[in-house]
Amino acid sequence: MTAPRTLKIPYGGDYNPEQWTEEVWDEDHRLFTRAGIDTLTVGVFSWSLTQPGPDTYDFTVLDRILARAAAEGRGVCLATGTAAVPPWLARRHPEVNRTDFEGRRHRYGQRHNFCPSSRAYRDHATRMAGHLADRYADHPALLAWHINNEYGGACYCGLCADAFRAWLRDRHGTLDALNDAWWTTFWSHRYTDWDEIEPPSALTEHWRGPDHTAFQGITLDYHRFTTDALLNCFRAEQEAIRRHDPAAPVTTNLMGPYRPLDYHRWAPHLDFASWDNYPPLDAPPTRPALGHDLMRGLKDGAPFWLMEQTPSTTACRDVNPLRRPGELRLATFQAIAHGADATLYFQLRASRGACEKYHGAVIGHAGRADTRVFRETAALGEELTRLGAATLGAHTPARTALIFDWDSWWALEFSDGPSRLVRYLDVVHAYYRAAREAGADVDVTPHTADLGRYDVVLAPALHMIKGDLAARLEAVVARGGTVLATFLSGRVDEHDRAFRADVPGPLAPLMGIRVDEWDARPEEFEQTVPELAAKARLVFEIVHLTGAEPIATYGTDFYAGTPAVTRNRYGDGGEAWYVATALDQPGVDTVVRRVLTRHGLLGPYADHRTLETATRVTPEGTRLLFLLNHAPAPASLTAACTSVDLLTGKRTEEGEPLTLDPYGVAVLRLQ
Ligand code: GLA
Ligand code: ZN
Fold this sequence. Notes:
The chain is of the alpha/beta class and 671 residues long. The chain has 4 domains: 301 residues, TIM Barrel; 63 residues, no CATH class; 199 residues, Rossmann fold, CATH 3.40.50.880; 60 residues, Golgi alpha-mannosidase II (Immunoglobulin-like, Sandwich). The protein has 17 helices and 27 strands. Strand 18 and strand 19 form a beta hairpin. Zinc ion binds next to helix 6.
């Protein structure tokens, strides 16, 4: 199943009219029409309304909300509302409340606070999902199901401990296998009974927080278990929905590169991917782009939904800057450029009370249409209406893959040594950014992806090598492709045990190198890499060549002159590159551009650093080139091919000047 079929890009967002009176609904819908809003995400936090007591269900308000949406011709993404438990449930079944990493059993409060192993939670949540599906499966407004909200976090209660032990039996089979996987002979940990195993928390294996664990194996397995435990909550609700509604697609709003949950384990169970884009403040535009491409990669490149973004400002940060004029439009078209087939907001009208009352909304507390945010969102609504179906269902024809691996993320960041300063996402983002700014479309894929489609495979900080990945990477190079791996790749197996082999383990033959030692230095230390005119930091692996040639070397210290970047020619004209240190961004850019150039993958505007390009190909085979000007100044280009801009209707011949406004966007249909 795919995302809902629509005639244009669904546009709208989270809408909680149960918080205000029905006169306000009239104003809401009048303004929605003016803003081109056709899609409402409803019921995300409605559980205490729809089930005010253990045996009482009350759908009168939700009935009216949906009836009104249908009458106005708007579609609804209907949430099951199970992310915030009602007070009576927590009181009646205190075990639905989580126990935190420090071992504190929480009492009722906040949201996203349920224990995934609690039967009471699971039963009540699935029953709610079933009732909703029974009631609304055939509702004319229903577009899709939105289960729960931003699943996340972890629980360390006794129920979770039991569920973890059952999960471990299933995964490892025997205690011998588990002891071997976790290397428990170290520090006298050999388990002789499943019940001896405790969830890894501040009270057990951890010190100084969640990243410092005595046994990486148990902490890794707890992350996998938590991923599966929350996924099982999702699946239970999905099954309850499916019993009544075999047709409408089901999703849940994910969070892009969110460390606690391995979304690749979720991917097969989602009918379509959707996510909430709140990039870190001051992040370069490639950071949200990485999120989009990671989410598109969940369903093998199928379009996803942008389920939430703020139309203006967040509220949860200490300081919440506004989106500048034009930035919202740019961010919205960036999502579409990367494969979004819907763009939705949190939120359509601001709540009057509680912690998100100052969060940006299309409609503020005063209900005005003459605000900047309303004008901008309405103008965008009009553009999306004009765009119609032109981008729907289009795929990204990427020739470059970047392997993203939650296990590697976890293993790297739970590791004592060589350096706590290396952050997985920083390394991944540096390589992704280099490729994207050079104009290459990139698929961010799981390690299991079919690599046969790609000319270039980037494997930054691929700490853990699982299955037959090394052989599949060798196959890419054997047929003339390029694989690039970096420092701290190929170190451990699926249980986080070092390979009994030269570093980088199974990648060593392909890379034609051997690493025996590695140096780590404080944040402020910079090593020179003269051939690239670059600097390197954090970790410096000392490389011995076993077939590769040096491309760049370290400039100082006792390993001065030894390779920092290598290339191994392999197979039928293929190349395997290894970058043994954390190069600065210009250094990463130089290396990645050399690799892309070899395959003709530099984009036509690769010299315009602040101009982002992205390609989508429609199901009819039409090529669309998105141009996104991330600079506050105009971008003056020379058209690389003849095109018509779908937003303005303007035709530009190849070689003619093409200008984009500050933060401007063009969606070019290539001729
Ligand atoms: C998340 C949640 C929403 C809301 C927004 C605010 O994405 O899903 O309910 O809290 O953040 O930014
Ligand atoms: Zn629990």
